[in-house]
Amino acid sequence: AVQLLNAKPDKVRVESEVIAQAGLPGCVTIATNMAGRGTDIILGGNPAGLARLVLMRVVYRRLLSDLLEADGVPVTPLPEFCLYDAPEGIDLGEAMNLYPTADQYQGVPEHLQLPADLHLNLLRSVMLAVAKRRMGTALRPQGAGVDAAGLPLPSEGLLTYDEAVQLLGWCMDEAEAMRAVVKARLRERYGTEQVEELEYTVCIVPIANDVASEVEERRAEAASDGVDVPPGQSFTARCALLLWLWLEQHCAGAAATV
């Protein structure tokens, strides 16, 4: 995929994350010294940055009220996630047909498959975003989809770009806190926190799911006491945790081959 960066101040954070992935195997990056300036490039890729790019592209992009901004969200540089990057404008039923069930997923080429738990959590987060976009589009008055110049109008009840970035930031902060707990428990059980030394599905996922469930229970109790939690974000935080840990494994393996 080709991504065009323009070093606009409001896109610095996302563009820096694109530049940070220049260390991915097979990635060719040609840039001016303005795009992503000051960004560290890690051989094998940056797991946290990749997790943000994936979630922004396949989940939070669908919550943007401005379709032009949604079109400008960088594509995911890993082919495993192209499956979840369905076109805009589809309804929930059509989206469900685009994404394979757990059984159908076995027919997807092996090199494009994600572990089952990560696949299902990512799929659910995408479905929540598709449903939210469907609701926001439905709130527009009939015939109000474009302005006088033929450009798409913002949808009601959705997010500005800055709001989406803030929501993604909250999600990643939650995932980072949970990841620290997961790493501590991996050390206790297996004597190492290096995820590349452990089997993802057997060793890492059960602990990550336990930690996420504990956090979700505490958050539900806090919500009953009036603490505000962004709707649907608890589930996406679990997805971000599983995604980050898998990408950490993936990037470590890629770095070893460089």
Helix content: 40-55%
CA radius of gyration: 19 Å
Which sheet architecture does the biggest sheet show?
none
- Secondary-structure element string: HHHHHHHH
From the N-terminal CA to the C-terminal CA, the straight-line distance is 21 Å
Number of strands: 0
Question: Could you explain the architecture of this structure?
Answer:
- This protein has 258 residues and is mostly helical.
- 53% of the residues lie in helices and 0% in strands.
- Helix 5 packs across helix 8.
- The chain is globular, with a radius of gyration of 19 Å.
- The model is unreliable at 139-154 (pLDDT under 50).
Short descriptors:
single chain; mainly alpha; globular; 53% helix; 258 residues
Q: Briefly, what is this?
A:
The protein has eight helices and no strands. The protein has helices at residues 12-20, 47-58, 67-71, 92-98, 116-138, 161-190, 200-224, 233-257.
Task: Give the SSE map.
Layout (H helix, E strand, L loop, with lengths): L11 H9 L26 H12 L8 H5 L20 H7 L17 H23 L22 H30 L9 H25 L8 H25 L1
